Amino acid sequence: MALAPELNKQTKLKEVAGIPLQAPTVDNCRQIQMFNTKPDDFFICTYPKSGTKWIQEIVDMIDQNGDIKKCQRAINQHRPPYIEWARPPQPSGVDKANAMPAPRILRTHLPTQLLPPSFWTNNCKYLYVARNAKDCMVSYYHFYRMSQVLPNPGTWNEYFETFINGKVSWGSWFDHVKGWWEIRDRYQILFLFYEDMKRDPKREIQKVMQFMGKNLDEETVDKIVLETSFEKMKDNPLTNFSTIPKTIMDQSISPFMRKGIVGDWKNHFTVAQNERFDDIYKQKMDRTSLNFCMEL
Ligand SMILES: Nc1ncnc2c1ncn2[C@@H]1O[C@H](COP(=O)(O)OS(=O)(=O)O)[C@@H](OP(=O)(O)O)[C@H]1O
């Protein structure tokens, strides 16, 4: 019997310092570590599936003063590069960043311990968005199923173990979020929560605007709220990834713009998994002051 496409994938991750990453990224590790930031760089930093494309669209709209036409210059995926992105022979994320004029907006999913040393020397701005672990985990599961460049996630139960052991691409959610949270007062870091963005997008967009040093009128902010809503982004070919080939993302398995809600974990976790997850969460996040909203 033929396997479902998502179970037929042969891709394997490699590791750097115990953190699994896609093999071309690991092979390009040296170039990433040598990357030079500039003082006016602005980084969007996230653990995967935390609302990266959403915040990136918001940042772009603010940067373009709410001009929709300017935001339509390229698909969302190609606007700010991920510095760790690598797929030779195409130019790497670092190559693309190096070719960009200042001031640059860049992205990364890297945990703090894998960031290039120059991140800490130039007083750049970092916008970090965190999403509650359970929804992140569910979203990542469906992404793993449809992504043709990530390994086979196995069953939900198997994937559950992979996730809690930090063996998914870009490593442990717990270490990632804790790492960025712990340094938030030492650098120019605006730490936002996906759940707050869902609850009050206008307020969160205003925080981003202030952090970017922009001052847009209320009408423009309202336009940004509308244009970056889940429904609008799901319908927009520049933000819904419909132009990405099926050999990279097979959206017939699961769409990139899947549900965009808080609390979908309740449709996936068994009672036993939920209790076990809560115990692990308590152990791993014990000493942080982080507080996540699990449902709205
Ligand atoms: N505008 C808007 N509003 C609310 N939610 C949104 C929005 N845009 C993207 N999303 C949801 O974010 C999830 C994808 O996260 P990322 O963009 O971080 O994915 S990635 O790591 O860059 O591949 C994924 O979450 P799930 O739907 O839970 O899978 C997207 O649907």
TrEMBL record:
Pfam families: Sulfotransfer_1
Major location (coarse): cytoplasm
Domain Sulfotransferase: 39-288
Xref: SUPFAM superfamilies: P-loop containing nucleoside triphosphate hydrolases
Keyword Cytoplasm attached: yes
Segments traversing the membrane: none
Gene3D superfamilies with a match to the protein in the record: P-loop containing nucleotide triphosphate hydrolases (3.40.50.300)
Source domain of life: Eukaryota
The enzyme's E.C. designation: 2.8.2.-
Family matches, as InterPro entries: P-loop_NTPase, Sulfotransferase_dom
Localization, UniProt: Cytoplasm
EC main group: transferase
The keyword Transferase appears for this protein: yes
Record keywords, A-Z: Cytoplasm, Transferase
Similarity field: Belongs to the sulfotransferase 1 family.
Record's protein name: Sulfotransferase
Gene source species: Rattus norvegicus (Rat)
